[in-house]
Design a protein that fits this description.
By secondary structure, this protein is of the alpha/beta class. It is 39% helix and 22% strand. The chain has three domains: 63 residues, Arc Repressor Mutant, subunit A (Orthogonal Bundle), CATH 1.10.10; 114 residues, D-Maltodextrin-Binding Protein, domain 2 (3-Layer(aba) Sandwich); 99 residues, D-Maltodextrin-Binding Protein, domain 2 (3-Layer(aba) Sandwich). The protein is built from nine helices and 14 strands. Helix 1 crosses helix 2, helix 1 crosses helix 4 and helix 5 crosses helix 9. The C terminus is likely disordered.
Length: 335
């Protein structure tokens, strides 16, 4: 086993396909397949499950993937630190953002890391929160923001904030155009679109409506933020989302957005990392930068609809650096 084989295996898992991995690595697919067979023979374990849809790692393959990523990260860090004389943070840090969080945090994080830590290369993944959770569990991410506020098996969580949820859309009876809140009883039987039944936001919506004894009328399951917003804009149905979901949307006619109350709807968000993946210096500074940026963006009004959490006992929130001004953007529609 050598570093080249580990790189090949990581690329195969990331690509989900031997043919795509071969293209990325600029080698013939039969040669790449033989490298996998050699690894399986040496480790005496089946590493990949092959199907018409591509390949996926077995449990043994997931373990090899996590360990291989760590080896490759450390090899990259050694090279960069030697070239730069040591003492600087460097390496690749993979981060996962739910789509609504990425709308507000991803670009400022990229800018801040490029400014402070030019030796760090970010890999940013944006998807629905369930997929981000899976990537973190499989060792494909170093950090992720997830909608939870407690540790789980193998995953540590640093609570960041609580996020208010709003009803977005037109057909809400008995509400005036200037109303900024929407009692949940007014949403009884209102046509609504929401993510699929296994999505965390969908489960929260269902649980809140059930506890309030209000009839929930979901007319379509849609796992696409742009499509949900487009439907809300059209006026055919409402949706329930955080304010941040509207940050990157340019509306022809912005739909009303009202905070859900009586009872209110909110969800916690935490910065999470796997305890099974060794933390390099680059990951530590990116983690501190993310915590810092959330506080700054909220303070300057670029992240509305959230309530910051106090840092855990014994942990201090990072102080903003003197040169760490958050780039101000134009006024956002819907915030």
């Amino acid at each position: 086993m050598d570093v080249r084989q580990l790189k090949y295996f990581v690329t195969i898992v990331d690509s989900g396909s031997l043919s795509k991995a071969a293209e990325r690595l600029f080698i013939a697919q039969p040669s790449l397949s033989q490298q996998v067979l050699n690894l399986e023979a040496e480790l005496k374990a089946k590493l990949l499950i092959r199907s018409p849809q591509g390949v996926a790692p077995t449990e043994a393959g997931k373990a090899l993937y996590r360990l291989s990523r760590d080896v490759l990260r450390r090899m990259e860090q050694i090279k960069q630190e030697v070239q730069e004389g040591g003492g600087s943070e460097s390496g690749t840090v993979a981060i996962g953002f739910p789509t609504t969080i990425a709308s507000t945090l991803a670009a400022p994080l990229f800018e801040r890391v490029r400014q402070r830590y030019p030796g760090i290369r970010l890999q940013i993944f944006e998807s629905m929160s369930g997929y981000i959770t899976e990537l973190l569990a499989n060792g494909r991410l170093d950090l992720a923001i997830l909608f939870r506020d407690t540790d789980s098996l193998g995953v540590s969580a640093h609570p960041l904030f609580d996020e208010d949820l709003h009803v977005v859309g037109y057909p809400v009876p008995n509400l005036g155009e200037d109303d900024t809140t929407c009692p949940i009883r007014f949403l009884s039987n209102v046509p609504m679109v929401a993510p699929g039944p296994t999505n965390g936001l969908r489960l929260l919506i269902e649980r809140t409506f059930s506890r309030a004894d209000v009839d929930l009328n979901i007319v379509a399951d849609i796992d696409s933020l742009p499509t949900m917003l487009e439907i809300a804009e059209s006026g055919t149905a409402c949706t329930i989302l955080p304010v941040s979901a509207l940050a990157r949307r340019n509306f022809q006619k912005r739909p009303p957005i009202r905070k859900v109350v009586e009872p209110s709807m909110n969800r916690p968000a935490s910065l999470c990392w796997s305890n099974g993946v060794p933390t390099i210096a680059a990951t530590q500074v990116v983690r501190s930068t993310m915590i810092e940026l959330v506080s700054e963006l909220h303070a300057v009004g670029d992240w509305q609809g959230i309530t910051l959490r106090e840092p855990p006992a014994g942990e201090q929130m990072p102080e903003p650096a003197p040169d760490a001004a958050v780039p101000r953007r134009g006024k956002r529609e819907g915030t």
